[in-house]
Amino acid sequence: MRRRRRKGAREALGGKEAHPVGGRVSWELKRQPAYAPRSHRMQLKTILNRLEKHKSFVYGSMTLDESGLEPRLLIRIKPRRGSRPVCSGCGKRGPRYGHGEEREFEYLPLWGLGVFFVYWMRRVDCRRCGVRVEQVPWSEGKHRQTRKYQWYLAKWAQRLSWQVVAEVFGTSWQSVSEAVRMAVEWGLLSSGNDGNHGDWDR
Ligand SMILES: [Zn+2]
Question: What average pLDDT does range 126-149 have in this prediction?
Fold first, then answer.
């Protein structure tokens, strides 16, 4: 009886020498070991799709970039097949007109790593506006940060000085300032008419 149970357990592991992935999210993002229990197979991509899903875009490869001073996690984004870009001038979809530049957008840091979305911006041949760069849902205009990260910085800027927020999160004072401005524009706080941003303006 006992022997049969042990045999069953081995079969469940694919008959291999197995080291169960003890609840960790594996760094091997493309290929998970066959023996990983189902409940442990949650990939970063799955988590991202829960937190930040955009219906016209998909997440591609994820790589750890160790070429700079600090390692960074780069997450490629691709347009979903057949999706048409949105014009940044009028917000309407239009036919694609080649590629623009490749851009990086800073997302929330993870495990002390900077996290960046990497995306080749498309151009749109817009009927009203002419050729324009597309608008992407995770960021606005020329901002280097994603909206999510801007909200994150802005929330910390309510509690700490902008300079401290910039230092702690390894970003610039300007980025914190832009994040706060975005939060103010979205009407999250009552800024008053005197240009004073209340608790945010420090
Ligand atoms: Zn347009």
Answer: 93
> For 93, which DSSP code?
B
pTM for this structure?
0.70
Rounded to an integer, what distance in angstroms lies between the CA atom of residue 99 and that of residue 96?
8
Ligand 1 centre distance from Cα of residue 93 (Å) = 8
- Summarize the confidence of residues 14-42 as an average pLDDT: 47
For residue 170, give the DSSP letter. Answer: T
Q: From residue 49, how far is each of 54, 58, 63, 80, 144 by CA, in Å?
A: 8, 9, 17, 14, 21
Mean pLDDT (whole number) for 102-107: 95
DSSP, res 26: P
Sequence-ordered alpha helix ranges (H) in the chain: 2-12, 44-51, 147-159, 162-168, 173-185
Distance 123 CA to ligand 1 centre (A): 11
Q: How far is the CA of 174 from the centre of ligand 1 (A)?
A: 29
Hey, where are the domains in the chain? 44-137, 139-202
Contact predicate 44/60, CB 8 Å: no
